[in-house]
Amino acid sequence: MGTEAGHAQTNFTGFTLVDNPPITGSADELTGPMLLAGEVNSAGFPSVGLARARLIVQLPPLPANSQPSHATLGLYLQGNTGNSGNATFGPLSLYHNFKPNSVALSTDDYADTNYVLVTNSVVTPDSPTGQYYEMDVTAQVAKDYAADGATPVSDFRFEVDGLQYTGGTHYYQFYFAGDPYPVHPVYLNITVSTPNFPVLSFGFQNISSKLALSWPTNFDSYILKSANAPNAQSWATVTNQPVVTNGQFRVTIDANLTRQFFRLQQ
């Protein structure tokens, strides 16, 4: 058991990446800030070609010893032209990339294969404009917090899968910073939970055969114990002395030992 609290984040960077004709599968320019995905060939837009949008969120630091339990990304749909005249203009997909840890923008992001599908139905050609659409990004945000260290970043890309350029204009556009509209254009609501018991984390040290186990220092009444089976009747105290690093007790042991199970016990 533990406590939960909401945590909102509003620090966003958003741009549209455009593959100009002839379509090559890679972006030729960045435009924005705006969040637009589809095909554009209209006097209303400075760019022509296939467009994908990239949204970067600088995540806030979590309270001590807490973890994200739920995260919702919400965007306000400003424009939806529908697929009249382009049968390949289908639903909008959301992708996530947990590897970047910066807000730097690059045309290479258009075709970056590190983006993994989150959902292929953010909105459809029939989705009405003038309202919010929400996406569950709990797993993605949790992964960013776990992987990015002290400066976590969530990196999302929006695109219409399989879209073929026809020389027309078919797009989805979401309100973003600077748009003159009386709504909060983009939000990421994060619920964090703080357990009232320690969470034991582990990892291997580089290429050495050392296993590192750690837990928060505010749970100093807990002792690390080991056994050769999870249902063992007797658990032995691990005698390796813990070292305090970044608010964590850290114990390093030889990973070449026979199979062992570990737990924290008061």
How is this structure best summarized?
The protein has 266 residues and is mainly beta. The chain is 4% helix and 44% strand.
SSE arrangement:
Elements: E1 2-9, E2 12-19, E3 29-31, E4 35-40, E5 49-58, E6 67-80, E7 93-97, E8 116-119, E9 132-136, H1 138-148, E10 153-159, E11 170-174, E12 186-195, E13 201-204, E14 210-216, E15 223-227, E16 236-237, E17 243-245, E18 248-254, E19 261-265
Antiparallel strand pairs: 1-12, 2-3, 2-5, 4-5, 4-11, 5-10, 6-9, 6-11, 6-12, 7-8, 7-10, 13-14, 14-18, 15-16, 15-19, 17-18
What report would you give on this structure?
- The protein has about 270 residues and is mainly β.
- It folds into 2 domains: about 1-195, Jelly Rolls; about 200-265, Sandwich (Immunoglobulin-like).
- The protein is about 5% helix and about 45% strand.
- It has one helix at about 140-150; strands at about 1-10, 10-20, 30, 35-40, 50-60, 65-80, 95, 115-120, 130-135, 155-160, 170-175, 185-195, 200-205, 210-215, 225, 235, 245, 250-255, 260-265.
- The model is unreliable at about 1-5 (pLDDT under 50).
